[in-house]
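User: Please run a holo structure prediction.
Assistant: Happy to. Please share the sequence and the ligand.
User: Here you go; the ligand is nicotinamide-adenine-dinucleotide.
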Amino acid sequence: MTRKKILVTGGAGFIGGNFVQYMVNKYPHYDIYNLDLLTYAGDLTKHREIENKENYYFVNADIADSDAIITLFKKEKFDYVVHFAAESHVDRSITEPEIFVRTNILGTQVLLDAAKQINVTKFVHISTDEVYGELDFDPTTFFTEETPLQPNSPYSASKASSDLLVRAYHETFGLPVNITRCSNNYGPFHFPEKLIPLTISRVLNEEKVPVYGDGKNIRDWLHVFDHCAAIDLVLHKGANGEVYNVGGHNERTNIEVVKTIIKTLGKSEELIEFVTDRLGHDKRYAIDPSKLERLGWQPIYTFEKGIAQTIDWYLNNKWWWEQIISGEYQNYFKKQYTLENH
Ligand code: NAD
Ligand code: TDX
């Protein structure tokens, strides 16, 4: 089999990290390069089981540093780029939008330019369903690939901007690209600022769980392992220039998610604390993934199976998340929330 070089950006984060592990294990004849700046969201301890494998490499770099990126691309001549690196937390984009513009927009443009210069075989850009804006609560409506982009937060606006740049590099320069737009991921190594790992870690520590507004906003939950399989398929089989939506068929209100976690862990619902709503809080996301299903993808995880596996993972891997919530994260949490008992 032909040896390939694959650059994964943001491979020290949640989804990129799972994807790096999936690819290193599945394709021993591919060299997987994990490029990451190691911001607050990136950590390499998650890779202790693969870090000594012969087909795994780590590069510490900033995707917005064009000199470093061009030099690296010219040296390594990557075949494929799978681009996850981003500022990814909506709440942080409300308080610090500037870094979202730099990393998500400028960083993507720098990577596209470098990919164009070395003629990569494929550039897969990992985007989000949030670029489509929000749906109302009518359960028969879904985001399709044709839904207009109407991002509502600085985060989703920066992701939509990067999607448009990816499209433009395909239309203008013929760069072979795909864009994937997925729903909310969950699973191992999910950073505990996001709803599911925040709830699991706080419930395990008997701390209050902040639920925004009335808790009735709906998200569609996609297990990260199903997402990795989807990206693998798009990387190898996606038609150039196409967008693929990735969704889990698992819509839940936030309060249902929180109550499920509390019940599974045998704790009291008194831990729930309704707090001030997020500004511009999108009501509902839901995906029509039929285009990707036609390419050959089906999710394996129901929400019930996935959340049980995820809770088990957090119970068995306290070494990972306890080190994270004991550091700088404490300052973030205090700034973000005004709960009585934290
Ligand atoms: P994450 O925040 O867990 O990880 C992001 C990674 O990018 C971190 O390792 C960080 O160090 C790295 N990074 C940040 N800025 C960088 C820079 N300038 N240069 C190099 N590396 C940098 O994010 P995630 O949840 O794994 O999301 C990955 C991608 O998937 C993002 O593009 C996000 O928009 C998209 N996405 C995420 C979800 C989700 O539910 N988490 C859903 C839809 C789409
Ligand atoms: O403390 C909280 N309380 C709460 O009620 C947090 C952190 C969140 N929420 C709500 C807000 C959302 O309706 O839970 C829902 C999920 O919130 P997040 O985990 O912050 O995810 P979301 O804003 O939906 O965005 C996620 O999915 C799409 C990822 O963070 C994005 O990167 C991705 O693009």
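Residues 97-117 form the longest helix (21 residues).
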